Description:
Helix content is about 25%, strand content about 25%. By secondary structure, it is α+β, with helices and mostly antiparallel strands. Strands 2-1-6-5-7-4-13-12-14 form a 9-stranded antiparallel sheet. A 6-stranded antiparallel sheet has the order 8-9-10-11-15-16, with helices on one face. α10 (about 330-340) links the parallel β20 and β21. The longest helix is centred in the middle third of the chain and has 16 residues, at about 300-315. It is globular. The site of iron/sulfur cluster has 11 residues, from α17.
Amino acid sequence: MTRRLFQGVPGVTDTTGQLTTDHCPLPTVTEGDNDTLHEECGVVAIHSHPDAARQAYLGLYALQHRGQESAGIATADGQRLANIKGMGLVSEIFTDDVLQKLPGHMAIGHTRYSTTGDSALLNAQPIRVDSVKGLIAIAHNGNLVNLGNLRSRLERDGAYFQTTSDSEIIVQLIAHSRANSLVDAIAGSLAQVEGAFSIVMMTRDRIFAARDPRGFRPLSIGRIQNPNGPDTIVFASETCAFDLLRAEYLRDVLPGELVMVTEDGITSRQYATGVPQSSCIFEHVYFARPDSRIYGRWVQESRDQMGRQLARESGVPADLVVPVPDSGVTAALGYAEESGIRFRLGLIRNHYVGRTFIEPEQRVRDFGVRLKLNPVRNLLEGKRVILIDDSIIRGTTSRKIVRMVRGAGAKEVHLRISCPPTISPCFYGVDTPSKRDLIAANKSIEEIRRFIEADSLAYLSLEGLLKACDGSEHNGYCTACYTGNYPTQWVDVEDILPATVGF
Length: 503
Ligand code: SF4
């Protein structure tokens, strides 16, 4: 995987390709952001709704946690296809005026945090390609891993790439397919690429949705019943989007399945079979919202079980269980109930900082973490505290949080992590540092404990995590970032080299 650097062009691009600069809130990365994991994308699709753009907007709004760098919506009315995308949050880009420029009864939408391709408007999605098969727009969640010579082969065949994003490979494969029908072209193209993809696609009159054969990323189908017309069919990365749209959950798009929605209804075909499922378990640990159902299982239930299992595996005498908000909250509730130790919100998160904050000089070292989290001194003073978090990546943020809790008067600070140590990078759509920067790949648990200055440190076991997510090592989850066993052949050698010098 090549991580390219790019000087982005701020603004919003519309169907004419013109850039305007009135919607260009570029993110300013605060200190500490490089010590957390980022999801890459969320996708939605709407078929048969008189205001499809607004429905897509609401869906993306519910999926904002999956990517805050850029967002886009493409719509179609049976004749034309419009596409607007921009840098920033969904609500910043899609004002009422902008939504009015997106007519049609069909829409696809995308919200993005990038790792592959440049971090800029150029690679914001949906990506639109005009081909002999007509206009096609695509929105993609995940990462392809066998790009190798596909791109140069397509360029030799006359493909003109508008972006450096791997998502465009899929749509160019479709555009250059020799298959007679569009459905055959899509199925044949998806079968050629390897890696993680949950995609939604739109032509002038059809919506397509597909998941890769291993089902790395989630994608669900929902329906809004319309008493006076055809039902609206909705696709979304997470079911929490259905709640905002008042859509009922029908089912997941299956791994290796291609679903097509037309005026005549829904049809489906299995374009790949016989591949073992390896859905990303980290969706349950961290990325997905607890109010979503992912791979048929409520995330809230998994996290609660992670906390309970963690308490059983690594209990320690203490006065309080305190979550690192927000993602540690559900696991901490489970831990507290299982251990009988009181749960308290001893750290308060400020939800209004992060993206647009102008970072102070580098010498104010802990400023980024202190901006986001603040300890509740009267709860923590003199207490033995169990802190619950969902991961330790480089270790620097964890150390700041441990210091913060101790600085607020805690007598002891015990850190418990609701998943196993992260020892290998992800190549399937999660932005992880390379192995040399992952603290658990280069230090023992006791060395990490000393580094983060905790009184004790324990992680959930792999068996415990699989049990909490109702899986076993062989029935459906990717756990490669905890084991280094990748479900695909492809790995990036540079990224999996451990550190050779002291951390
Ligand atoms: S490597 Fe980890 S983060 Fe990536 S897909 Fe597998 S479980 Fe998810």
